[in-house]
Amino acid sequence: MKLVLRTLVFHIICILVFTFLYRHVAIHFSYDKDKYDKLRLVDFLTLSTTVQAGLGFSDLYPLTRTGKIILMIQQFVVISANVFTIYIFTI
After folding, report:
1. Under 8 Å CB-to-CB from 27, ≥6 apart: which residues?
2. What is the pLDDT of residues 12-66, one digit of tens each?
3. Strand partners, 62
């Protein structure tokens, strides 16, 4: 049970870290300007959560190479964590 809780906490921490990272580099992301006046923290939280969950869809998307690299880093972290978790549970 401890391993499950640690895995859950790890994913929540990743979501929060990448949320604030995306907010910090907000200029590298695009969104539907007709729907939003400006980007809010909840928009970046939604993006981070969908990437962490492996869904990969959001109204917010990277425009620049920097935004794409940060997004790919989060995807790599998710893939690595999932592979590690599967390995641990199959021992």
Report:
1. none
2. 999 999 999 999 998 888 876 666 667 889 989 999 999 998 887 777 888 899 9
3. 29
- Distance CA(47)–CA(13), nearest Å, equals 14
Q: Do residues 25 and 70 lie in contact, with contact meaning Cβ atoms separated by under 8 Å?
A: yes
Beta strands in the chain (DSSP E): 29-30, 61-62
Nearest to 82, CA basis, from 27, 74, 32: 74
Amino acid at 55: L
Q: Which of 48, 46, 55 is nearest to 74 (CA)?
A: 48
3-state SS class at 30: strand
Count of positions (residues) in the chain: 91
- pTM for this one? 0.83
